[in-house]
């Protein structure tokens, strides 16, 4: 085998944020269906949550290169 185990580690590290982002967007859509008048604040909170989740994926990518 040629390569680094870090690539496998990053692949596994990307699973968690992917699942988290899917749950976040799904629950936001569910809450928008229940209360459409809160679309603005829910959308802002969803984007903040997506940014934080994406930061976890980028930290996993950086850790793969560092170690």
TrEMBL record:
Give every V-ATPase proteolipid subunit C-like domain span. 6-66
- Entry GO MF terms: lipid binding; proton-transporting ATP synthase activity, rotational mechanism
Q: Which GO terms describe its cellular component?
A: plasma membrane; proton-transporting ATP synthase complex; proton-transporting two-sector ATPase complex, proton-transporting domain
Q: Kindly report the protein's main subcellular placement as a broad class.
A: membrane
Q: How does it sit in the membrane?
A: Multi-pass membrane protein
Task: Show the stretches that span the lipid bilayer.
Answer: 7-26, 46-66
What functional role does this protein have? F(1)F(0) ATP synthase produces ATP from ADP in the presence of a proton or sodium gradient. F-type ATPases consist of two structural domains, F(1) containing the extramembraneous catalytic core and F(0) containing the membrane proton channel, linked together by a central stalk and a peripheral stalk. During catalysis, ATP synthesis in the catalytic domain of F(1) is coupled via a rotary mechanism of the central stalk subunits to proton translocation. Key component of the F(0) channel; it plays a direct role in translocation across the membrane. A homomeric c-ring of between 10-14 subunits forms the central stalk rotor element with the F(1) delta and epsilon subunits.
- Spell out the family assignment given in the record's similarity comment: Belongs to the ATPase C chain family.
Its recorded name reads ATP synthase subunit c
Which gene is annotated as encoding this protein in its UniProt record? Answer: atpE
């Amino acid at each position: 085998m040629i390569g680094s185990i870090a690539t496998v580690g990053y692949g596994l590290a990307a699973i968690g944020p992917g699942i988290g982002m899917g749950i976040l967007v799904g629950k936001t859509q569910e809450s928008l269906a229940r209360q459409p008048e809160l679309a603005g604040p829910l959308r802002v909170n969803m984007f903040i949550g997506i940014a934080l989740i994406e930061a976890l994926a980028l930290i996993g990518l950086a850790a793969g290169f560092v170690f």
